[in-house]
Specification:
The complex is a heterodimer. Helices cover 0% and strands 46% of the residues of chain A. Chain A is mainly beta. The chains are: A mainly beta, B mainly beta.
Chain lengths: 116, 114
């Protein structure tokens, strides 16, 4: 595709429900990243996938958050038992090689999550 | 601990005026440095990046940034701002820890007045 796509663009859910957010990276990009952007905050790193390596989950805020990447392409971020503080914009990015510190990350438009 | 500070939450400049957005980082070694821009309803777009070499880096849309090791700064500049530059700007630091970690600043929102 032309860029990183994310779906849905907006999601409203009730507290306690589970949500799944999807990310389609740029074709051929081996690295995929998830970030959270809360109102008035910078980007908070959540998780990083690189090829077949074990993902770096060091940024996940709690065990209610998980992510998987199937077939080295599409990724799903799952938030279980959502809380109001989970409300944020969830951004996905991909990069070509995954030397994350050096490679340019291409960002999707984000999914805006609102937990009522 | 590593950190990125953007001291200005928001800045307002007149169209045609010059712009400087400040960014300071805290890290023991020389980091990789980035500036991203986020326009309303858009994803983040890379403006420029510094890895090594010339400390003055040119980016897209007429932006440039200068790495000053002594000040741990990587300020973004533009000589003449256009109304379309109104957006939020994020400074980011890539840490060479043998693994991936990029830390973003909280962002500076730029308003441009006619």
């Amino acid at each position: 595709g032309a860029g990183v796509s994310q779906s849905p663009s907006n999601k409203v859910t009730e507290k306690g429900k589970d949500v799944e957010l999807r990310c389609d990276p740029i074709s051929g990009h081996t690295a995929l990243y998830w970030y959270r952007q809360s109102l008035g905050q910078g980007l908070e790193f959540l998780i990083y996938f690189q090829g077949n390596s074990a993902p770096d989950k060091s940024g996940l805020p709690s065990d209610r958050f998980s992510a998987e990447r199937t077939g080295g392409s599409v990724s799903t971020l799952t938030i279980q038992r959502t809380q109001q503080e989970d409300s944020a914009v969830y951004l996905c990015a991909s990069s070509l090689v995954g030397r994350g510190n050096q490679e340019t990350q291409y960002f999707g438009p984000g999914t805006r999550l609102l937990v009522l | 601990a590593q950190s990125v500070t953007q001291p200005d939450i928001h800045i307002t400049v007149s169209e045609g005026a010059s712009l400087e957005l400040r960014c300071n980082y805290s890290y023991g070694a020389t980091p990789y440095l980035f500036w991203y821009v986020q326009s309303p309803g858009q994803g983040l777009q890379l403006l420029l990046k510094y890895f090594s070499g010339d400390t003055l880096v040119q980016g897209i849309k007429g932006f440039e940034a200068e790495f000053k090791r002594s000040q741990s700064s990587f300020n973004l500049r533009k000589p003449s701002v256009h109304w379309s530059d109104a957006a939020e700007y994020f400074c980011a630091v890539g840490l060479n820890t043998g693994g991936f970690k990029t830390i973003f600043g909280a962002g500076t929102r730029l308003f441009v007045k006619a």
